[in-house]
Amino acid sequence: MRVRMKHAKLLFSSILLAALFTASAGIAATTTAGINVSRGQNDSMAYGLNIKQRYDPWVANEMFELAPLAELGGHAWVSKHKNADTLWGGFLAPGLRFTLNTDKNLQPYLEGSFGGAVNNDNTFDTRQLGSHVLFRTRGSMGVAFGDEARHRVQGDYINYSTIGLTRKNDGYNTYGLSYGYSF
Fold first, then answer.
1. Block mean pLDDT (10 aa), the chain, length 183
2. 133, 118 Cβ separation under 8 angstroms
3. N or C: which end of the chain has fewer CB within 10 A?
4. How far is residue 43 from each of residues 17, 56, 84, 104, measured CA to CA in Å?
5. How many CB atoms lie within 10 A of CB 56?
6. In angstroms, rounded to a whole number, what is the distance separating the alpha carbons of residues 121 and 177?
7. From the CB of residue 110, how many other CB atoms can be counted at a distance below 10 Å?
8. Which tens digit of pLDDT belongs to each residue from 32-78?
9. C-alpha 36: how far from chain center
10. At a CB cut-off of 8 Å and minimum separation 6, what does 116 contact?
């Protein structure tokens, strides 16, 4: 078990270094502050706040652009059961955004990230998460709109897991909506 946790910590550290490298490698294009409300497993709710930094696109043409991003934020999970369990934590993840260049004021996009999260506990409600340190995978589909596409609304799927590095690995999944404002 200790060997697995050492591997998990090493992998988590590598992801954090990759996120920092991604952040320093590109020139910042936009910063977005966002809020997330999601439905989680076991009849729970998940809430989040984040800052996303999108960098200059790797590929850009008249039809689309592909740009790296980094996100940093916090989350809270609240159980609706009698025990009213609450878990909170933070995350850091590098990712990519694929944007269709349909209009300057209306831009549909797909976004994803893979990084790490650190939580205040390794259990939530009846779920055995396996560790305080988890991997966080997010996939989103959304639209940027308004003056210079500053507003963002997106649907999110987020998974937290030890990806099998611990014996107990119930993980935690959420489905929800996010709103962000770019400046």
1. 53 56 60 96 93 94 95 94 85 96 91 96 91 96 93 98 90 97 93
2. yes
3. C
4. 35, 40, 11, 39
5. 13
6. 25
7. 15
8. 999 999 999 888 999 999 999 999 999 999 999 999 999 999 999 99
9. 10
10. 12, 15, 16, 91, 92, 93, 133, 134, 135, 136
Give CA angle at 171 (152, 99), nearest 5°.
25
| Tokens 């369990």 belong to residue | 85
Task: Provide the residue count of the chain.
Answer: 183
The amino acid at residue 105 is: N
- Indicate the residue type of 156: D
Cα gap 153→101, rounded to integer Å: 17
CA-to-CA separations, 131 to 8, 117, 148, 156, in angstroms, rounded = 9, 10, 42, 24
- Do residues 142 and 153 touch, judged by C-beta distance below 8 A? yes
Q: What is the pTM of this model?
A: 0.84
Determine the CATH number of domain 2-182.
2.40.160.20
Token readout for 125 is 């409600």
Q: What's the distance, Cα to Cα, between the start and end of the chain in Å?
A: 45
